[in-house]
């Protein structure tokens, strides 16, 4: 093995075995969580000492347009990409032997680029580490399998199952429903195994063709990397079987939306104990303060949890989606849920993020809000008992309003990083402006001849 292949994780080495590596993909996640980068022959990758991309990739919108540069509009200097060898993994759907490696973005002075989403998450973790804390997270991934949609003007419809019927909704936890697209699930398992990614469980969700994939708890950066990788492998598995996989928050009218619920606890690095549980197992002040920080700052964080105009279609009552910042024990109508668990596993589930959010930013914003609660000892409101699907003005209803709230929250902006927030605001306001130029079928149907 060459020097660089000796640094690969076990799963990547097993994938290679005795085969020659054909290609290496140098990958980095942009503001949207889209995989950007470059692919190169493995022989060239082995010889090259530096890898470069312009920092303007973080100003590219989801439509491929470019947002205004809030720093320097006339230059787009190259970043130095540094491979994180712990992330090296197979791309098992390719015809040749290909590896993917996530890279960290640094400027030419060797400093982490502050508006790279992966670096934003690392920034938050450094704040926790300075206090002797280590966050532990467990994301849940919800997504839809759909029929191929080749015309954006046509509605998305469920895929055809092996029975010859289209996938049906309202079949949550049905094993037969999952079996309808079992071949896609089989490829998801196979790809994940080849990549060394751990799946905690797969189940049928409430929507037609909607699946939930759970990941085991662990380090926030590694779990964000896993979600990043999973999105790509799930799409590839679906395409093998003549369907699409979508992570849109609300792809089908009348069906539930897709969330990325984030379970979070915090461990004392010296003792290894969960700071949310006292020696007698009772809930601690830290537990209360973390909830208080979430309640105080998550409203501003919605801009990160719901990054597109479509995201806000998910926040409707009675569709298993949060419309509030209340908290409750084992209460799925509250935006913040405390699952039933042992004291050692006590955690808080943030139910606001949609599956369309960037996993690095969704986890970072959750941890940032909790950190502010811990540091400022923010007391939460009393636990909400009963049905929390009530009118609430705590969650913004449009992307524009959400961006305004984020801009106004000086504490959250400081923790997330002022430069990052400027870049994020520029990208998202550009996308929102583009959306407002589109006339929808609803407008044509109801306004064209009636107003």
TrEMBL record:
Domain called GS catalytic: residue spans: 117-451
InterPro entries: Gln_synt_N_sf, Gln_synth/guanido_kin_cat_dom, Gln_synth_cat_dom, Gln_synth_gly_rich_site
Keyword Ligase: yes
Gene3D superfamilies with a match to the protein in the record: Glutamine synthetase, N-terminal domain, Glutamine synthetase/guanido kinase, catalytic domain
Keywords: Ligase, Magnesium
Coiled coil region boundaries: none
Keyword Protein biosynthesis in annotation: no
Cofactor: Mg(2+)
GO molecular function, one term: ligase activity
Stretches that traverse the bilayer: none
E.C. numbers: 6.3.1.-
Family matches, as PANTHER family: GAMMA-GLUTAMYLPUTRESCINE SYNTHETASE (PTHR43785), GS CATALYTIC DOMAIN-CONTAINING PROTEIN (PTHR43785:SF3)
Family the UniProt entry places it in: Belongs to the glutamine synthetase family.
Protein name: Glutamine synthetase family protein
Organism per entry: Gemmobacter denitrificans
């Amino acid at each position: 093995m060459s020097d660089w292949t000796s640094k690969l994780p076990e799963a990547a080495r097993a994938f290679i075995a005795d085969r020659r590596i054909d290609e290496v993909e140098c990958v980095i996640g942009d503001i949207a969580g889209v995989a950007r980068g470059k692919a190169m022959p493995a022989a060239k990758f082995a010889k090259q000492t530096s890898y470069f991309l312009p920092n303007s990739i973080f100003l590219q919108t989801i439509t491929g347009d470019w947002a205004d540069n809030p720093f320097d509009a006339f230059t787009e200097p190259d970043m130095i990409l540094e491979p994180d060898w712990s992330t090296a993994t197979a791309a098992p759907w390719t015809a040749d032997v290909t590896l993917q490696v996530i890279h960290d973005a640094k400027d030419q002075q060797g400093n982490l680029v502050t508006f790279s989403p992966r670096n934003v998450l690392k920034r938050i973790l450094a704040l926790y580490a300075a206090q002797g804390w280590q966050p532990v997270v467990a994301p849940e991934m919800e997504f839809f399998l759909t029929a191929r949609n080749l015309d954006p003007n046509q509605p998305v419809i469920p895929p055809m199952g092996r029975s010859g019927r289209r996938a049906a909704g309202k079949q949550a936890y049905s094993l037969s429903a999952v079996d309808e697209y079992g071949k896609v699930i089989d490829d998801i398992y196979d790809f994940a195994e080849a990549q060394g990614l751990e799946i905690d469980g797969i189940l049928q969700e409430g929507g037609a063709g909607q699946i939930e994939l759970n990941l085991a708890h662990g380090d926030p950066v590694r779990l964000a990397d896993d979600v990043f990788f999973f999105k790509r492998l799930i799409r590839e598995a679906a395409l093998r079987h003549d369907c699409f996989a979508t992570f849109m928050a609300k792809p089908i009218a009348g069906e539930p939306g897709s969330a990325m619920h984030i379970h979070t606890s915090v461990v004392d690095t010296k003792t290894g104990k969960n700071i949310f549980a006292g020696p007698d197992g009772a809930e601690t002040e830290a537990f209360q303060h973390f909830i208080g920080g979430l309640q105080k700052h998550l409203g501003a964080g919605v801009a990160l949890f719901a990054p597109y105009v479509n995201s806000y279609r998910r926040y409707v009552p009675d569709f298993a989606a949060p419309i509030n910042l209340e908290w409750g024990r084992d209460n799925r109508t509250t935006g913040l849920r405390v699952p039933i668990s042992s004291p050692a596993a006590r955690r808080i589930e943030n139910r606001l993020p949609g599956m369309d959010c960037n996993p690095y930013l969704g986890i970072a914003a959750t941890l940032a809000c909790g950190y502010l609660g811990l540091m400022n000892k923010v007391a939460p409101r009393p636990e909400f008992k009963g049905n929390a699907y009530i009118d609430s003005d705590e969650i913004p209803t449009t992307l524009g309003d959400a961006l305004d709230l984020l801009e106004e929250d000086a504490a959250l902006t400081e923790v997330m990083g002022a430069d990052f927030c400027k870049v994020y605001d520029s990208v998202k306001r550009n996308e929102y402006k583009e959306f407002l130029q589109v006339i929808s079928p609803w407008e044509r149907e109801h306004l064209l001849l009636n107003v």
